[in-house]
User: Fold these one by one.
Assistant:
Number 1:
Amino acid sequence: MESWLEFAKGPLFRLTFAIMLLGLIRIFMLDIWGIYKAYRKAGDKNMPWKLVLSRGLEWFFPVNRVARNRPFYSTFSTLFHIGLLVVPIFLYAHVKQWEKSIGISWITLPFDWAYWLTISTIVFAIALLMGRMFNKSSSFLSRKQDYLWPILLLIPFITGFVCAHLNVNPTYYQFFMLMHVLSGNLIFILIPFTKIAHCVLMPLSQVVCTIAWKFPPETDEAVCSTLNKKGAAV
Amino acid sequence: MNTTVITDEEKQKAFKSLRKPETIEKQKLDVRYHIEDFDVSERPRRFLEAFAAILKHSNYKMALDHFIRMSAKCSRCATTCQVYQATGDLKDIPCYRSELLLSVYRRHFTIGGLIKGRLLGSGYLTDDKIQEMADSFWNCTACKRCSLECPSGIDHALITHLGRYILSEIGIAPRALVVSTREQLEGATKNTSAIPVPALKDTLEFLEDDMFEEKSVRIKFPIDVEDTEYVFFPAVSDFLMEAESLMGIAAVFTATGDSWTTGTGYFDGINYGLFYSDRMLERVVKKVDEETKRLRGKNILIGECGHASRSAKYFIPTYCGGKDAPLVINIMEYTYMVWKEGKLKFNPNIVTEKVAYHDPCNIARQRWIIDKPRELLKAFCKNYVEMTPSGENNICCGGGGGTVSIDELRTYRTTVGGKLKADQIRKSGCEILVAPCANCKKQLRELVEDQGIACEVVGLHDLIYKAIIFDDSLIEKEEAKSESLPKEN
């Protein structure tokens, strides 16, 4: 199992991380390219940047929005996202791995913070899953991936917590650690191809929505010509 | 805002179709709005052809790609959709409505969808899906409130707008809108209300006489004057139904002395293209620009109408020259500007009733005009109250997205679409509701009538007409007035 773990932490991690990185760069660049092309085609190039920025920022710091509708679900979701980002990036053990591998390190979470943030992320993930299952409108809209994602995200958090904070015997430790690393790797692969792509696309949403309403000029004639409707009555 | 779902009895009434069963059978489409006869063969193929043509010549593809990559299906939009809040029908959740079209896009216009479809041999667009879209897209009031609430930033109103556009290309569009637009673009009268120019002139002359009698001021509606500062395009229905709004606007111009005119070549601000077809939107917008150029006017002035203002402000630059296009302003902006410059005076005690202001979605949702009309109202209304939520988060009147002009949808609009608004009006206790939009005014009047709310719905300039104080130099003496008034037999 040790060699499996080494493989999962080493080459497999590098491969999956690269897939995630390249996949996210790809979709981000596709979005940027789409925006650029649309902007060039648009008849009106005047962009309300202040509005775009303020609406975008509202969702990065969603205090007002959270309180207004479904406050519990929205608060849980916000706190869940904080834990989801902060723990993997700033956990001491993760930063040390990066330092060992590429020689770069950054600030780390104090032990207590990591402990409570991990627990809160697990709790909020379960709460969100419950919300999705039992809220009428959420469950109606949900696809398979909407249920699977919270479950998948729970695995590295639970296994990581077990390894870091519970005294388990070495065999179990290695098993949990292998599950931790493999689930993390699976998450990396899936991110660019599923809704989690929002982690890089969300900042572009307001720009996309604004430019989408900026139509190209002379589309009437072009569409008519393509559909053989030239000269047709209204 | 909390609300309760309407009763089954109300639902039955609201969704009752007024169409003849034989027409439904003939057109193979069971929707609640009337449609002109159209080719019913191979609808899915023709839908996809239209979709492809529109994608090719528009910017929608970029948005659809973005939306399908990140839609989280969180259902937050359900909490603000007034249609869903009233019906409680899960199929009225904006995200579900959007998915109707997004799934077609994913299946037929993405590589992944095409491969998956081929492998599984499934997911083809069907007549049933078209039926569902034709129904669902016209349940929406296009208020765009859901778009503010989506954490992923998905613009559900854009998807509904596109869905309606594609459907219209295969002949599925409300007859009321199509017929009006046809008259506007190809008819003899060139306006959606089919008002002939002589009738327009008669109406305006009559209003001028009326105003002179009331105010002793020669308030004019200049017609076909060239080289003016503003060329005026109200919702043309105002000439028939909103005389007081027009009188208020004319009074403001008389007080300021600025030059303005209405053109007889084209005088309709209404643009139903915004609701069902970008092609029609473009054609109508160009008419406005052509008339402005014919009269060598400097700026385009839109009357009290939300969708007319939005279609001119956002699409005149699109279709008529970008940065070089004429400036578009809404009459509320103009009135506010001249009031701030000290050119307007109001009687501060003239309106004593409890007054509230309704934000038209097409004006407030993009944070365009929110505070200005409120400041104006507070200058002459002693008892102004605010409805909550308001401004960019306002609740739609329930007749948005063109539905107000579809008479067969009245019960739907006043029972489902406008339910949340009716609750809000009741809660505010206002006696006068100011709605600076022709569509909102019509819908709100029907809403208060059908819901039994004691409240008068007026335009902003209706009250300005009451409150305005003219300079003494403009007021004619009684003797002169009696000489100049038409003599009755």
Number 2:
Amino acid sequence: MSTTTTPTPKGPLGQPLVRREDRRFITGQGRYTDDIVLPGMTHAAIVRSPHAHARILSIDTTAARQAPGVIAIFTGQDVAADKVGGLPCGWLVKNKDGSNMVEPPHPILVADRARHVGDQVALVVAETRAQARAALSLIAVEYEPLPAVASLAAARAAGAAQVWDQAPGNVCYDWHLGDPTATEQALKAAHQIVEIDVYHNRLIPNAIEPRSAIGQYESGTDSYTLYTSSQNPHLIRLLLGAFVLGLPEHRLRVVAPDVGGGFGSKIFHYAEEALVVWAARKVGRPIKWTAERSESFMSDAHGRDVHMRARLGVDKDGRFLGLHVQSQANLGAYLSTFASSVPTYLSATLMAGCYTTPAIYVEVKSIFTHTVPVDAYRGAGRPEAAYLLERLVDKAANALGMDRLEIRRKNFITQFPYKTPVALEYDSGDYHATLDMALAAVDYAGFPARREASQARGKLRGIGFSTYVEACGIAPSAVAGALGARAGLYESATVRMHPTGSVTVFTGTHSHGQGHETTFAQLVAEQLGVPVDSVEVVHGDTARIPFGMGTYGSRSLAVGGSAIVKATDKIIAKGKKIAAHLLEAAEADIEFKNGAFTVVGTNRQKTIGEVAFTAYVPHNYPIDKVEPGLEESAFYDPKNFTFPAGCHAIEVEIDPETGVVTLENVVAADDVGTIINPLIVDGQMHGGLAQGIGQALFEEAQYDESGQLLTGSYLNYGMPRAADFPFFKVGNHVTACTHNPLGAKGVGEVGAIGVPPAVINAVLDALAPLGVRDISMPATPEKIWRAIQDAKAKAQH
Amino acid sequence: MGAITLKVNGKQVTVDAAPRTLLVELLREPLQLTGTHVGCDTSQCGSCTVLVDGRSIKACTMLAVEAAGTEVTTIEGLAQGGRLHPMQEAFQSCHGLQCGFCTPGMILSAVDCLKQNPTADERDVREWLEGNICRCTGYHNIVKAVLSCRDRMAQSKEG
């Protein structure tokens, strides 16, 4: 499949440049948090609750304090005595009646009660990592185990154990969006109602770098530094400084150096970050904590775990008339940083999908359970919307005896801007184009022959589609604020031209695999007409970069890149003034192109390097009109979300004897807006697809009834491996975003959003001849085999 | 504690280490070779893969004392005389890495893959890499990188 439908670019924009950051990673020179060694550094380990729900009766640290190398031990009592604040939630969701959601406390060490396996009970600080870990087993915690609820069903059952007294029925909030009356009327008038019941399996993000944090306190300057594996260091500084420890931000530096993947799980402010900073001052030495993988499984925020029921009303021609969705979301035991927004503002708002459904009503109840907090994970809410809709649309086609592509085409939105009944306004898109592209790439015309060939070998072959839309670059700040967001959603950039014409860009976004150092250098090189190699990109250190919101929600290019464009525009505007002076021309007569300021209609020009030099050596300079120096900052607050969309097509072959699924064809045709670096965009697609396929076929976090995590390591959590995949076919059809200067939409999450329903639709297509109508994610061989056996048994009766 | 002598990246070193010290701990802590990463605690992820006497091994499954007298190559020692190993080059040119955390282990495992089977095909490569988990790339460009390195090495032998 051709990579893109746009013409080959001439400048650096759009070039598949290899990444400059690779050099350090392929030679072992990357610097992740755990690689950092500070003078006098100590090591921390954490006592975690082995119970899902227990009262803490006593903690005896006597023996541990005597253990070799142990420096200090802290418990929840110490944290409480110091009046350390709890971890805050960044989004206030309101109930249907206008009242606020329940916001229980989220202490950084629990004092009296543990609420999930892995809840942090005590902190040990020792000379070495091994000594800290060895001391854990010497701390005697006396627990009184209490009844626990580990699933949505258990938490909602009559007489269920309560996670929080202030949340009766374990309900955090009961929220809604859309028009219930119009939706009910539309459903009443429908020719047919199609119903579906789906569960979005609980996932564990599993960035390969385990979370790590180093806290440092310097008494001489009364200042703190936190090194942390975070996607957004300024957000952590704000939450840690203002809410948890009460530290002034100007004395708190947060550095997120190289970070080994995030996928959402490293957005959030975690207890360990606050603990190492707080305790570093107590012990007077830096403290490092790095998760063991088994700790990651029980302390990193999980993703999904949402149950949805929906009714779609259709007319006899297959037009969608109304949609009513009822959703229950498992939030875990505490509210993680953005947990409350995921099932609501990031999911319910996408329930129109690519379709013109005129009436939609979504109800969301979010529920506390005795499990690890659940929050945003690659896609965050949007995969749930896409999965529900794309399964439902296939079901509707079946019910009406219609072709599943025809029913999609019939309902596609084709006029933009388009205002959905669930609060969003799509600015651009071409859903037919990406569907056509996917059909060509998957060779849909050849599918019947391939199915026959499979049949001849005793195999079942199926093909499945999903035509999804999603929303990235959450914004604008004012609107999000009105809806409960407690943070701004702009992005920042500073562009510093040096006297010799090279450039340093300071971005508020954070790169942990996305390749911003390369992409943003390409962008600035294009804007300023300088070589890509003369642009350096700096991110991840609050002492160096302007206040920025970091990287999540596929926002970095659309929002952060736009801030960079604004800053370079200011550089050019100032440069024009300087050039006008040097060229003895009117500023209005100066144009900037290909790195040079030219007097229009002449060949008189000054390069941007010459202008920069003059700005820093202002001997012949319009000093009364322009300040020296050439450095500009910009903050960009988007006018709207961006709306990437596309079609994913999956072809599978299933062995009916074993239930094993083989992926024969993985196709993604997407519209992610303007592309700066196609090599990186394709890479983002591959990764997103792998995680989406992981959700559909392999991955599920499972708890037993007592709240024990059964999938607590790579031995029993279904992490996808190299042999699970074929090569993917990815391509783009670009329609530009209409409201940001780049036309960019975002690519980070589209793979994980679009592909799960395509996989399940393909599996169900393969199993359809046997009468299998439904299967839940992950569609493991066992589940498929059982579905086949059940269908066979049914057929015999 | 006891003294362990081994060769690391061509240099003889003697390090005092407790008997329970893992090879990966020896490399990361006293030797400060932090390019070898720890991504799990069950010997599943392969981020700590190094070459011991030329064979890939997960450095979290080997005690440091077991490595006494061996020759260990970590990612820091793979480039020779400032020239990248063809596998390193292939990972860069094929965009075979994103966050970079699994990359050192992935590259060293891939080096051994082609050493054992210089004509490995896509299936061979995918199966060989079962012991190395990557969460960023979907393995697509990693497999491409290994195959491209295979072709390049074959060409240079013919040439």
Number 3:
Amino acid sequence: MTRQQILDLYFMDARSKLIDLAAFLDRVDRAEGEADFRLAAFRAALQELHGGEPQRAKAVLLSLSDPTTEPIAAAPGKGAIGAWHQTH
Amino acid sequence: MRYIEPHGHMVSRTTDDYEAMLTAGCAAVCEPAFWAGYDRSGVQGFYDYFCQLTDYEPKRAAKFGLPHFTWLCINPKESEDTALAADVLGIVPEFLERPNVLGIGEIGLNKNTRNEMKVLEQHIDLAMRHGQMILVHTPHLEDKLKGTRLIVDLLKADARVQPGRVIIDHVEEHTIQHVLDAGFWAGITLYPESKTTPPRAIDMFEVYGGQSVWLNSACDWGRSDPLAVPKTALEMRRRGHSDATIDALIYGNPIRFLSQNPRFHLR
């Protein structure tokens, strides 16, 4: 597909998601209390959107991933949170 | 349109879903054993579940004219309890000769723990001793990258494992290349929130190639869509892919992989 065709097909959808992201960050800013590590991880992942190569989705996923390589001693629970934090 | 649903947890879906899948062109459904949403209290719970997967559920699917196949294991979410895992691994062999069993799955990792690794290794050994194919679950979200690497390393460390008889499921943009480079098949799971959306799945197909890739909905009791595969096919059409290309991905590829087990056949 050409860039024009991609824009025709996906621009409105991406625009909507972009505004949702902006509204999410606004909502977090308006709320009271302390944020946790997820907000910092989210903001760090956002920086990956500025990359010049068409590997941004991969870069965002890597940014949110556990970079360690050794199995852990025991499961802290069953679920995943969506962003890695060294203390859990 | 015709397609195979190679990964659907049908025990948690309704008969309406079966009808909708058939209407959309589904030709067969494959159901790996998974977590019930709660921890089973003992091996008897797994025995009953394996009976359901190998007896009741294929009969329920057959009422709609749909061939139903399954994979058996204790899932990684319950693998922290190694004593329970040993008990479950002990009963799996008696089910392996049932006519709709395709192999061992979905095994893998959840939180990437030592116990999960130990049970994964035991599953791989069980599969190899019984000449079974393997379907692997990779962890969720932040745990996926590390878990996928650990799984690939463990599989590659066993010289008996033929990568072409193993599918590593739930790949995303940061893991698909690693899986394919190691010679394994890769499964792309279509979920509304986690895992991948149809546009991203098609991106991966276009960037990394589709020779050893399948698409699945992994529909279960959570937010998921049993029609995610045919909906992705429609999205591929919007992207200009030919009917032949789509058919090869959503019908031909799963048949090519699954037919390595002669039990897999379409009516």
